[in-house]
Amino acid sequence: MIAYGITDRGLVRAQNQDSYTFWTEDQLLFAIVCDGMGGARSGNVASQMAVELFSEQVKAFPQLPPSDRMTQALTVANDAVLQRSLTDPDCAGMGTTLVTALVQPDKHVYLMNVGDSRCYHISEDGIVQVSRDHSLVANLVAQGKITPEQARTHPNRNIITRALGTEQHVVGDLYELDLHPGEFLLLCSDGLSNQVEEQEMLFEALYGGDESTCCQRLLDIALSRGAPDNVTAILIACGDETESN
Predict the structure, then answer these.
(1) N or C, fewer C-beta in 10 Å, the chain?
(2) Which long-range contacts (CB under 8 A, 24 or more apart) does 148-155 make?
(3) By C-alpha distance, which of 202, 40, 21, 38 is closest to 99?
(4) What's the pTM?
(5) Are 39 and 94 in contact (CB under 8 A)?
(6) End-to-end distance of the chain based on CA atoms, in angstroms?
(7) How far apart are CA 18 and CA 48, in angstroms?
(8) How far apart are CA 16 and CA 86, in angstroms?
């Protein structure tokens, strides 16, 4: 396994409030993307705290089953972000989305998401959004009130219904899948998914060029369309060895 990542402020926002990291250890690969919210002074604090604390917790408890490691990590990160928002006036009301993946040595993947940061599975068979957005427009689509195409331009598309650090308890949706050679996972903030079509993600991962530059190519597409939000992406490529860049 190998991973590549990129983040960019975009062309409109004054600050990048996205955060991400990935690492490998004992043939495990871990990756996480968080998209902060709460104003210019605190969105980046929430996303950075969540990335750091979640990552530390996953690394600290290798004896736990993967799903338990992720659930415990979410609780620790949520408690810390919420406490900071309640005690630091500059951070009042802050929170963050989260999408994360823990890839086992046998290529079995555990995924978790909170909010509208996404995980896509890309293969020769196509592209599938594995995670489900916790957002107003996602609920409207599920209810059949609007189409996925209408959701992309809906005036309330930025309203999320679940976030880390905004309530005492938060539940992350857990998913599992198997990766096979030649397949990819793409973790991203909505700054990418709102600007780049799924078929463009599929093309760039499979046919657009070297996989090491895929995230840059996706970022370039978002920038070419104005990039009104911060843009972050991690591409996980399934190969025969575990490494990261």
Answers:
(1) C
(2) 152/194
(3) 21
(4) 0.94
(5) yes
(6) 10
(7) 8
(8) 23
Residues comprising the chain, all counted: 245
* CA–CA gap between residue 242 and residue 160 (Å, rounded): 34
β pairing state of 2-8 and 95-96: unpaired
Helix/strand number for the chain, H first, E second: 7, 11
CA distance 30 to 199: 25
Which alpha helices (DSSP H) does the chain contain, by range? 43-60, 66-87, 136-142, 148-153, 190-193, 198-206, 214-224
Predicted confidence (pLDDT) per residue in 99-153, tens digit: 999 999 999 999 999 999 999 999 999 999 999 999 888 888 888 888 887 887 7
Which secondary-structure segment (H or E) carries 34?
A: strand 28-37
For 203-216, the pLDDT digits (tens) are 999 999 999 999 99
Q: Tell me how far apart the alpha carbons of residues 34 and 241 are, in angstroms, rounded to a whole number.
A: 27
What's the token pair of residue 235? 């591409």
Backbone angles phi, psi at 146, to 5 degrees: -140, 165
Please give the domain boundaries of the chain with CATH numbers for all domains.
2-237 (3.60.40.10)
